Amino acid sequence: MANSIDCPVDLIPVNENRVRLTALWVFLLVVTALLLNKFGHFVFAFLTVDFFLRAFKYGKISPLNILSGAVVKKLNIPNKPIDQAPKRFAAGIGFVLSLAVFVFIITGFSKTVIVLSIIFAAFAFLESFLAFCAGCRVYTLLVRLKLIRKQ
User: Fold this and answer.
1) What angle do CA 142, 126, 129 make, to 5 degrees?
2) FRET partner for 94 with CA separation of 20 to 30 A, picked from 68, 78, 134, 139?
3) DSSP code, position 77
4) Residues 7 and 133: beta-carbon distance below 8 Å
5) Which pLDDT value is given to residue 97?
6) CA-CA distance, 26 to 148, in Å (whole number)?
């Protein structure tokens, strides 16, 4: 089907509520970095490391994942299983975006920083508030353009 969305699958469940809470932290950090642009390089350096950990199978030591897990446990938010693979792919996109923003901050491309940060915040907002995985749309596009193989 031309209109279907493809997502990577690995049949390993993660808690969607925890993932969405992590996306909320990302959204808040990116918006804060945009509003207080003095600290943007610290925020995006942190996000680069955190997304790296989550994208490359070190999610158990990701500070945002740990924080989200503690909040989920403290507030007794129920487990809502969802496949891990699309979330890891989205974390890879987050890694690339946060690294790009960090590099553009360091090199002084402020307009590019603003545009990429808005895209970043939008992706995090969509995941956190609407359970809309923009990563699956990017994955589908990359598969259709034959830039990556379907997993």
Assistant:
1) 150
2) 78
3) P
4) yes
5) 95
6) 26
| Tens-digit pLDDT profile for residues 71-90 | 999 999 999 999 999 999 99
pTM over 0.85: yes
Place of tokens 């690995």: 10
Distance between terminal CA atoms of the chain? 17
> In 3-state terms, what secondary structure has residue 12?
coil
How far is the C-alpha of 58 from the C-alpha of 36, rounded, in Å? 29
Closest CA to 68 of 20, 124, 12, 125: 20
pLDDT tens sequence across 30-76: 999 999 877 889 999 999 999 999 999 999 999 999 999 999 999 99
Closest CA to 88 of 136, 55, 133: 55
